[in-house]
Amino acid sequence: MRAMWGLGFVLVVALGFWIGFRRSDEVQGGETAGFLADSAPQPAIAKEPELPPVSAPAPVVQTAVKPAAVPGARLEESSLAAALLHRPWKEVSVLVNQSELSAARKKLYTAVSAALANESEFARSSAQGLEKSDELDARESALLASALNGTPVAAVSAGSTNDSVAAVAMALALRARDGAKALSEGRSAAAAAAYSEVLLADATANWPSDSTALQRWTDGLTKAQDGHRWNVKGTWPSFTMKVKSGDSLTSIRQRAIKEHAGLVVCTGLIERANQLRNERDLHPGEELRIPTDKVHTLVDISTRWVLYMMGDQVVAAWEGGVGKPGSETVPGNYKIGLKQKNPSWFRSGAPLVPYGHPENPLGTRWLSWQLNGVESHLGFHGTTDPGTVGGAVSSGCVRLRNQDVEALFEILPEKTDVLVQP
User: Fold this and answer.
1) Tell me, what's the pLDDT at 31?
2) What pLDDT shows up at residue 256?
3) For position 9, what pLDDT does the model report?
4) 331: how many CB neighbours lie within 10 A of its CB?
5) Residue 62, exposed/middle/buried by CB under 10 A (0-12, 13-18, 19+)?
6) Cα separation of 413 and 264, whole Å?
């Protein structure tokens, strides 16, 4: 009886080790796409290249400013500035009361946040006396006046600035307000410029990110760019090409590249910029506009946001998921390499997992990143679990919701730059 019990114990332990090994094996290696043939002979399978060891940065924790601070605790002005930009004015008021700022600084934040919420009377009442205060610098005073009077502010830059943290937040908040106003008035180009500036500058600011605010600005940008960069009548840099009999988007692209040295463009970008539904919309004699601004992509790990850019303007943006602790997304300069629809997934030393299999996490698209001309184990991909987007959950890749990665797949040419910043 003891012998049978001992044998059963050994079998249970062995089974436990086998299950643990299988679970461990499931999370090893990068999220890499491969090929799967439907019939023999199978094509060569793209194997995951070995990359030199790279020191991964410390995990970045995404946080948001919230009014649930401990009563009496000191709030640094950078956190209050972030709240001014990101949060509703009543939440800002709570944070102002919890801060240890001077009375004049408290009035500044209260007045500007109220003005941004169109609480004009309360804003002006809160600002009384600030015109005589020596605690506001010239830039802060000018921005306060713009907030109270509803006047537009000058364009802002994501670069270095000598402005105070309060002035930076005020300028960005007012630019977002200007973008919303321009959008409501049908001035798509102006709205797109404003939202682009805010998204870029917020990604480089030294304060906590806020996904709700980022999504709000992204939604505004999307509507603005539908009337600007994605409108064939928009005012964006381009040259025209006349459609010839028998032309396809591929032949038009090839002719454009041959006639304009250095041009990098894909058929999906031409199609979307000209508002074509498909190639059946091509008609001999009509003219197509070919975008000339350089296409590139910025991945900001701290905000977990992906910015698709043409020239110096953000044209599209999406929330993304980044690498988990121990498999962090590595900052660096990459280029778009292999692009695949319905990708299979493989890891070194493990069987290939076909598209649609429950264990394949890549979703509907794969866009690899090249490092120094070599396919890396990193890339953009979709996901079978959209709830993980926005988290630090991947094996180093940047995952997007399937509808977002499908949009990116169509408009992002191969060999374009991908800058991944901490």
Assistant:
1) 59
2) 97
3) 39
4) 16
5) middle
6) 7
- Cα distances (Å, whole numbers) of residue 102 to 97, 142, 250, 404: 11, 20, 63, 45
Residue 126 has pLDDT above 50, yes or no: yes
Q: What is the pLDDT of residues 184-211, one digit of tens each?
A: 999 999 999 999 999 999 988 888 889 9
CA distance 138 to 82: 21
Look up residue 104 and give its amino acid.
Answer: A
Give the contacts of 342 (CB within 8 A, at least 6 positions apart): 355, 356, 364, 365
Structure tokens given for 342: 């319905």
Distance CA 183, CA 177 (A): 10
pLDDT tens track for 135-165:
999 999 999 999 999 999 999 887 667 889 9
Do residues 80 and 167 touch, judged by C-beta distance below 8 A?
no
Neighbours of 123 (CB within 10 A): 21
* pTM (two decimals): 0.83
CB 98 within 8 A of CB 71: yes
